[in-house]
Amino acid sequence: MNRAFAAAALTTLTLGITACGGDGDTLNKKDLTSKAGSICKDFEAKTKAISQPSGTDEKAQIDYYGKVASTLGDFVDELKKLKPADDVKDDWNTLTTNLEKSANGTKTIVEQAKKKDTAGLQKTNQELTTATAAADGAAKKLGLDDCSN
After folding, report:
1. Other CB atoms within 10 A of residue 70 CB
2. Euclidean distance between CA atoms 25 and 99, whole angstroms
3. What is the mean pLDDT of residues 65-71?
């Protein structure tokens, strides 16, 4: 289980780099990128502030990723407050949809780790990898280079 959980954990950490967001009225690409970049940096700082356990204590690791999952969920909520202009709406929706999948998947991984569900962890990790790649591609299309891998 440790190997599957470690792979899932790596994917979760990647999300911290991939994610971006913001708030306000309809935003053109430039304004969207500016606000999203700022929120991305805030999310990254919040994620880094969560004390990561050292060693292999599974309970400590599960608690850590539970906090990461909660922070990611809050971040996605902030993302959804942005209202992109029509010309960037499709890419924005791809980004937010896949980040929401990532947030939900991270919560699922925490629950699967608690149950020692190795097969579930592997499947969810694959789903997270796919969602992360899609979110990363959308972030790059939007010019959110600071928010993508």
Report:
1. 15
2. 21
3. 93
